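STRUCTURE:
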């Protein structure tokens, strides 16, 4: 078995880590914690390749702690229970600090995350979680309150150069011209792991005696498939393909692109949220049940987690694809927002303002308001727009799907309004 270059180059000491100076400087939180000699449970939040795993490992070593690493992608909560049982049944293990590191902790649903709570309270272990997702949405509040959240950032050019220097010190000098080296740095896009993978993929050519120029490296880089991550162009290309397949009412293409994204490691919660957006933007009131089904798919993932809940996403994708499409509500609300922005200085008409005080009565607040339930057909036909603004029509329902019924209702009230015009 050949150990990947990224593992062989991984720093084990905090002062060897590239980047994240805001955490690792003398006044940074990591160094401050070391001085206090009391490890904290941490949530490391940052983009791929920013050094979350490396920081967790070096942090553990600085405290001379036992380091147990797992991933929420490939491990189940049963694995956590097994670790907990070992710690509880072997008192000798408790004499040394245990740091449990869970990569992509957001992949476990909120019920699964609750497993950690009693053991963190008891001090059985220190927990370090790593996530690329906003912790406020990705973790439940109870677990989040036990963490000190540390935000990591994409590596800058200086930090990426430090990684190259580390490689050259440990192995061999990269025969790249200055411009070619800068191109390699740019291709990494702030991702340290991606940079190391590029070096590893190109290593046979980079270590030859002939200097590689910028144009040569460009050809080599173009031959390599870009890595998929949720910050990459490929991510946005795939979600665009999925969204447009559903908008285009093609359930088979929707299933294909959904499978592509899940296979690539996309976060199912991101997809569920996107389905909710599709339900309101592309379907709207043409099928009011679409929003409910999308919300149910999101809830199913929160309860079941992956991979069981992936079928709920597939169900939502097919239903949304086969629903009648309408952007009438989307267009109407955007038009309403524009008009509201332009006329934000106009007050509501006096008859719509509740009369509470004597001054309200003197100003005529509430006068002339007609209580619709006391009127024929429960409809007064009053103009509810500001007094100096003519009544606008934003919502134009389509003539198919449930909006056909909405169209009838709009016409019905328009006819009543014509029969009983506002005075």
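SEQUENCE:
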């Amino acid at each position: 078995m050949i150990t990947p270059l990224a593992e062989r180059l991984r720093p084990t000491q905090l002062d060897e880590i590239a980047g994240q100076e805001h955490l690792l400087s003398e006044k940074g939180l990591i160094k401050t914690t070391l001085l206090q000699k009391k490890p904290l449970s941490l949530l490391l939040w940052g983009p791929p390749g920013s050094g979350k795993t490396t920081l967790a490992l070096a942090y553990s070593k600085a405290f001379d702690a036992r380091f147990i690493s797992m991933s929420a992608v490939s491990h189940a909560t049963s694995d956590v229970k097994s670790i907990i049982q070992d710690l509880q049944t072997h008192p000798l293990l408790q004499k040394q600090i245990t740091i449990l590191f869970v990569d992509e902790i957001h992949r476990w649903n909120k019920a699964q995350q609750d497993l950690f709570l009693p053991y963190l309270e008891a001090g059985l272990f220190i927990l370090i979680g790593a996530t690329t997702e906003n912790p406020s949405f990705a973790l439940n509040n109870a677990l989040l309150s036990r963490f000190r959240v540390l935000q990591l950032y994409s590596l800058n050019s200086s930090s990426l150069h430090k990684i190259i220097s580390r490689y050259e010190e440990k192995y061999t000098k990269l025969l790249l011209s200055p411009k070619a080296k800068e191109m390699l740095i740019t291709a990494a896009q702030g991702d340290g792991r991606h940079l190391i993978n590029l070096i590893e993929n190109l290593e046979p050519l980079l270590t030859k005696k002939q200097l590689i120029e910028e144009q040569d490296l460009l050809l080599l880089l173009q031959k390599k498939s870009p890595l998929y991550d949720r910050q990459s162009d490929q991510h946005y290309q795939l979600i665009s393909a999925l969204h447009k397949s559903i908008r285009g009412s093609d359930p088979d293409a929707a299933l294909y692109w959904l499978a592509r994204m899940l296979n690539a490691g996309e976060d199912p919660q991101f997809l569920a949220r996107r389905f909710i957006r599709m339900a309101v933007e592309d379907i709207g009131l043409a099928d009011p049940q679409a929003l409910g089904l999308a919300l149910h798919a999101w809830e199913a993932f929160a309860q079941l987690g992956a991979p069981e809940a992936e079928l709920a996403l597939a169900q939502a994708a097919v239903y949304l694809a086969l629903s009648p499409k309408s952007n009438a509500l989307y267009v109407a609300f955007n038009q309403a927002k524009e008009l509201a922005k332009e006329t934000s200085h106009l007050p509501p008409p006096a008859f719509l303002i509740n009369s509470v005080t004597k001054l309200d009565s003197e100003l005529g607040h509430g006068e002339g308001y007609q209580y619709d339930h006391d009127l024929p057909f429960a409809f007064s036909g009053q103009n509810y727009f500001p007094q100096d603004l003519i009544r606008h029509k934003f919502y134009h329902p389509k003539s198919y799907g449930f909006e056909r019924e909405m169209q009838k209702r709009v016409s019905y009230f328009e006819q009543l309004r014509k029969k009983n015009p506002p005075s």
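REMARK: The two ends are 85 Å apart (CA to CA).
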